Amino acid sequence: MTSILAIDTSTDACSVALWDSNTVRVLLEHAPRRHNQLLLGMLRKLLPQGPGNLDAVAYGCGPGSFTGLRITASAAQGICYAAQLPALPVSTLAAQVQSAIRLGLAGEGDWVLSTLDAHIGELYWGLYRVVDGLPHAASAASACHPGELALPVNESLVAVGSGLHYADQIPDTCRARFSAVHTELLPSAEDILPLAQHALLAGEWQPAEAVCPVYVRDEVRWKKLAEQGPRS
């Protein structure tokens, strides 16, 4: 029996999910700028006995909100460090594609452009192909101005995520490939779980000290546990 906790605060949605005995429990709230107020209470509600029965902690590693990614990474790192659990980093762009799969917005064989609003006039994006019910990356996570978006394939795409608020600035050659557009979709901890299970089975985990958000942009950097200095 495997039990995995998933945490995601990378966007306006604050969510936690627990997979245990083939059942999934989810807590999700759309609460911009309130993640730090909500997350601990949500974790206590989902894990009233603490993390002792967990096998791993999965977290939305980014890209996404700088503050939100720090909150997620801090929570995941703290639980993994205290309970000596492996951490499973999952791309928020990939999790968002998994959300689209769960909701029936994308299916087997589809190409999916996953986007997030990076603010300051930019978007985060990644291209995925749905294979065996899971998103497989066809590009690295990137950040760019909408007008600079250049897709590496010429296939029809399902386009998802808040980065599509910039759709009118995306080049016509890209928009012409969109077979469907779902602007309001956001990643959820629930949809981190299938990807985390796959990663755990493949041995693709990291120790607590290696937990690190993926910012994409180079001007910010998370300090890993060994770099954070002495604890007070």
Notes on the structure:
It is globular and about 55 Å long. It has helices at residues 35-46, 66-83, 92-102, 172-175, 189-201, and strands at residues 3-8, 13-20, 23-30, 56-62, 87-91, 111-119, 122-131, 134-137, 142-144, 157-160, 178-182. The termini are far apart. By secondary structure, the chain is of the alpha/beta class. It folds into two domains: 3-91 and 187-227, Nucleotidyltransferase, domain 5 (2-Layer Sandwich); 93-182, ATPase, nucleotide binding domain (Nucleotidyltransferase, domain 5, 2-Layer Sandwich). The strands form two sheets. Strands 6, 7, 8, 9, 10 and 11 form a six-stranded mixed β-sheet that branches. Residues 219-225 have low confidence and may be disordered. β4, α2 and β5 form a beta-alpha-beta unit. 25% of the residues lie in helices and 30% in strands. The protein has five helices and eleven strands.
